Amino acid sequence: MTRPTSCSDSQSQHPLRTTRRTALQAGAIGILGLGMNHLQGLREAQAAEGPAPTGKAKSCIFIFLSGGLAQHESFDMKPNAPENIRGEFRPIATRTPGLQICEHLPMLAQRSEQWALCRSLTHSSNEHSAAHHIMLTGHSDLPTGFSPNNPSRTDHPSIAAIAGRIVPPRNNLPSAAVIPERLVHNSGRVIPGQHAGAMGAVYDPWMVEASSFHNTSYGAFPEFSFDHQDRGKPDPRIFQAPQMQLPEGLGMRQISGRLELLQTLRTQQRQLAGFAETQQFDRLRQGAVSLLTDSRVHSALDVTNADEKSLERYGRNSFGWSLLMARRLVASGVRLVQVNLGNDETWDTHGNAFPHLKNNLFPPTDRAVSALLDDLQASGELDETLIVMAGEFGRTPQITLLKNAYKLPGRDHWGAVQSVWFAGGGIRGGTVVGESDAHGAYPSAQPVKPENFAATIYDALGIPATAVWHDAQERPHAIYHGQPIAGLT
Which Pfam families does the protein's record reference (predicted)? Predict the structure, then answer.
């Protein structure tokens, strides 16, 4: 069994090791804007990192709500709590007896037999960047030298990166993708926890950037765009099928056909001629060409031109388009798609919380997630597609008003408890796991950790509990750091 080798390895090593190391270096060059490891050929060149997966789910859609969804306003309402805790919204019944959720999520309420809740996920951080890293990687601890302002190659690898490296690909496509944008703070700094971290850049998940950065406007543009502080700045963003990234200076619009692309790949082949076996590199090249020219990929990404019925069901906005894209990507063969439902801190409802949730955040979310459930149920794929939805933390029990920044009240950051939503992939619909206390402040029954959350995804995708990944020095790193959440399946 071969593993990635360090840059100091002797050139006299086994030829297959040299080839693989060089192929990984080739991935760093940036063909397609993603590592060469994502392509089928390199997957064939590397040995399996553990026993063959046996999980029920063929794929996973990880819906991430950056900013932190308020549990009191969504899936864990406290109607009997004091007014400054229960808030303005009221609960409604779902199709599951005894289960109530927010009145502004009526479509999901009608589909409760298809989804489950964990109301007791807990961790220790109330800071955005640290909590992003915790939830996106499934590690409650922060790595040595962690910086909230600078993603590092000492960070823990993201759940998406782990899936991308370990879960076998289908249809010659990357095993993992993140859509429709990277999470970037309004200051321009990239949020840590999104990448492969210590595994190395070649294992970074495929970033599909269909949504441009905007530093004051949030939500499901163009229909439901808003500014947390109502500063009145316009939001000119356009959601569009992204261009596949190629080496610098060569965009898709500059490619006249397969021949020109093939020539670019041949140039890199010549650069590696002293190391790569021709047959192996041909497989890599064929995988790259397949990714760029495969009509399934282009169709999956071109969601704004979908049929009218699909657009009506999902919504003509970035939330609807993103979940439609995720649905198409998993149908095409991508194994895990992380959907950032809104740009960085879209769900950070410190103030103006109730009108922004009621008018801008819940309507497109309710519609798009419900459409995703309906699609997968109708096609018979729901049972083999795990869907999870979580933010980096919950919100404080107490409602507060930050007068210097907001006109109306909201809730602050709260890592101590949040509600996490699950569907498909063997999840028992209508199930509620764990409880929070009477004020929605702390777990009162079956507390679960981010490690359990990550393990639930890995287990559904069939990653064995004994699986490890190896770093450049051949050191093994465990993938599981907790058991899957009990009671969901």
Answer: DUF1501 (PF07394)
Q: What is the pTM of this model?
A: 0.83
The Cα 369–Cα 365 span in angstroms is 6
In 3-state terms, what secondary structure has residue 21?
Answer: helix
User: Which candidate, 487, 489, 389, 396, places its Cα nearest to that of 447?
Assistant: 487
| One-letter identity of residue 478 | A
SS3 at position 273: coil
Quick one: how many helices (H) and strands (E) in the chain? 14, 18
**pLDDT mean over 440-457:** 98
CA distance 67 to 413: 9
- CA dist 322 and 215 (Å) reads 19
Cα gap 489→486, rounded to integer Å: 8
CA angle 318, 322, 325 (to 5 degrees): 140
Contacts with 79 (C-beta within 8 Å, 6 or more apart), sequence order: 86, 90, 91
For the record, the structure tokens of 7 come out as 């840059």
- Which 3 state secondary structure label does DSSP give 387? strand
Find how far residue 286's CA is from the centre of its chain: 27
Place of tokens 């947390």: 228
- Beta strand 385-391 with 418-423: parallel, antiparallel or unpaired? antiparallel
CB contact at 8 A, 403 and 69: no
**Helix H or strand E segment including 455:** helix 450-460
Q: Give per-residue pLDDT as tens, 36-81.
A: 333 333 333 333 344 444 568 999 999 999 999 999 999 999 999 9
7-41: b (≥16 Cβ within 10 Å) or e: eeeeeeeeeeebbbbbbbebbeeebbbbbbbbbbb
End-to-end CA gap in the chain: 34
Domains of the chain (ranges; CATH) run 17-47+245-301 (no CATH), 58-241+308-478 (3.40.720.10)
How many residues are recorded in the chain?
A: 489
pLDDT digits (tens, 9 = 90+) for 388-413: 999 999 999 999 999 999 999 999 99
Q: What CA–CA distances, in Å, run from 441 to 69, 251, 408, 415?
A: 14, 50, 22, 9
Backbone angles phi, psi at 90, to 5 degrees: -120, 150
d(C-alpha 54, C-alpha 269), whole Å: 36
| Dihedral over Cα of 145, 147, 153, 156: its sign | positive
Q: What six digits make up the tokens of 37?
A: 């490891």
At 265, the pLDDT band (50, 70, 90 cuts) reads low
